[in-house]
Amino acid sequence: MxxxxxxxGISKKTIYTHFKDKRELIKxxxxxxxxxxxxxxEHIISQEINPIDExxxxxxxxxxNLKDExxxxxxxxxxxxxxxxxxxxxxxxxxxxxxxxxxxxxxxxKKLFRKEIDLDxxxxxxxxxxxxxxxxxxxxxASFEMNNLLNDYLEYHLRSIVTEKGxxxxxxxxxxxx
Length: 178
What we know:
mainly alpha
């Protein structure tokens, strides 16, 4: 709290006029960031761009907003504030389930994704993969740069669900952006 007050140029007492304790401040900041990221993702989705490009646009947006999170704030949240972490994970899963299923459905309509995929399973496996690669014990930051991890995972994920038409678009995207 001292560091926050110093960085903001205010007293700790001023912080405590808005938040009853550190836990409330962390909860408020965590969910504020979550809501902002959701709003940005919604904006990208509303543009109804090619669903393959959409996955990469969302990845770029989220990375930019999390500033490549080198210190693993989710790990710290899980360790020191497990209730806030569990609530955040539940909200993330719920939001991603809804938004990813919409994108997958659009991809199927555009014949970019295979029609026989199980939307619920694919959206959940996407969530598990995207959250799992942030685990710095499994993917140490000294060996794995977050942007590369996310790109590799997206390519891996999309290759498993695309049609031939989708594979052509994915290949073109990767050639242009690598």
